[in-house]
Amino acid sequence: MTDRESKPSKAMETLQEISTWPLADWPKRFPDARPFGYLNTHVPEEVLHAAGFTPVHVFGQRRAPQRAETRLPGFTCWLVRSALDTAMAGELDFLAGMAFAHTCDSAQALADIWWLAVPSVPVVTLGTPVDLYAVGAREFLIADLGLFRDQVAALAGHSVTDDDLRASIVLHNEIRRLVERLYALSDRLPSPALLAALRAGHLTPRETYCDLLANLLAALEADNDPVTPDAPRLIVVGAHLDDTSLYEAIVEAGGHVVDDLLDLGRLHYSKLADDGGDLLAALADRYLTQVPIAAKTHPVCRRDDALLDLVRARAADGVIFAPQKFCEPHGFDYVTIKNALDQADVPHLLVELEQAQVTGQMRTRLGAFVEMLS
Amino acid sequence: VVKKSYRKLKVAKDLTRMMSAYYAKMRIASHLQPVAWVSSGAPVEVLVALGVLPLYPENYGAILGAQRTAVPLIEEAEARGYSPDLCSYATGHLGSVFAPEKAPMKGLPRPDMLVASNNICGTVVKWYEALADHLDVPLFVLDTPYAHGAEIKDHAIQYVAAQMEAFIAWAEKQTGRRLKQKKFMRTLALSNEAVGLWREIRELCVHRPSPLNAPDLFTQMAPIVVLRGTKQCVNYYHKLKAEVEERVEGGIGAVPGERYRLLWDNIAIWPGLFRFYHLFSRAGACFVCDTYTHAWSMGLQTDHPIEGLARAYTAVYINMSLQARTRMMVDMAKRFEVDGAVLHANRSCKPYSLGQHDFRRAIMAKAGVPAMILEADMCDTRAYADGAIKTRVEAFLEMLAG
Question: Is B84 on the interface with A (CB under 8 A)?
Answer without folding.
Answer: no
